[in-house]
Amino acid sequence: MTVLTQSPAKPGDAGGPAGGGRRLVDMVLRARELSILGALIVLVVATTIANPRFLSEQGVKDIFLNASILALLAVGQTMVVVTRNIDLSVGSVVGLVAFVSGKYASSGDRNLVLIALVGVAIGLACGLVNGLLVSFCKVPALVVTLGTLYVIQGLDHYIAHGEQIGAADLPSALLSLGNDAVLGIPYLPIITVLVMLVIGFYLRSYSSGREFYAIGSSPEAASLAGVPIRRRVLTAYLVSGGLAGLAGVLWLARFGTVVADAAHGWELKVVSAVVVGGVAIVGGTGTVYGAALGALLLTTIGSVLVVLKVTPFWQDAITGVLLLLAITVDRLLALRVTRVLRARGRKMRRTRDAA
Description:
The protein is mainly α. The protein has 13 helices and two strands.
């Protein structure tokens, strides 16, 4: 989509076509997020009618706990995808961080903050490698992150040597982070929501945050406007890697027992959550809130199928259908928005010529 570059008027000018385009895109995004929320509500109500125990206190807690890590990864992935890139290494980073931070935590009475810093530092290092190769070396993101996916997996297995980390080896403070709550709300969803709000506010309210969308909408126009494309793409990968590192620590805290292939295959779940949440795979549009809702929807579908005793095969099948549907809807909406903006531009030109 090129809605940010179709008029010389200032993007914030409500009277110009760019301002109208932004309002139109915002309206479409809100509609996508509301539709996801509506589908989620319908799914929960229908399942509760079929099995009233689905909405028990423990059932709701499990859904939010299970969705927290996926939503956190989806938030980081969103920053990458809006710049027309992708990060397929996040699942491997989670596995590596979960095991390495678990080894570090079990080697002595480690402080919780230090454990988290170790995990985030490993994630940032992985994000830095991805970001440098994509932004400065101009290697396609799909190739880079697919390669680092396998490299990180191999490194994880080399470090693990078939070893398993058990909950009995971990500090009680770390396990409390993954299972305890404040005012009845588990810590993990609180952390995810805080991260989502901070990044969502930054992308929406700061000019540097909006530059990520400008890059995804039209890299050529963004370059002409003076946007530091390489720096922004590198930043996106650093954020994605750092959040994957944090997710690895939370994975360790949540499950306690960790082996070398933790979060194996999660990169596809993360991309699915982002796309289902309304983030355009071609970049330029989408919000972290929609991505988080997409993660919650996919997690809820998995819980529903378990409650209804449906074979796990259907979870993957439904996820695939939702992914195809989301991409199709995104394409149709993009074409619709483009037509509307072109019609508005022609109307304004006719009005200006008549004057």
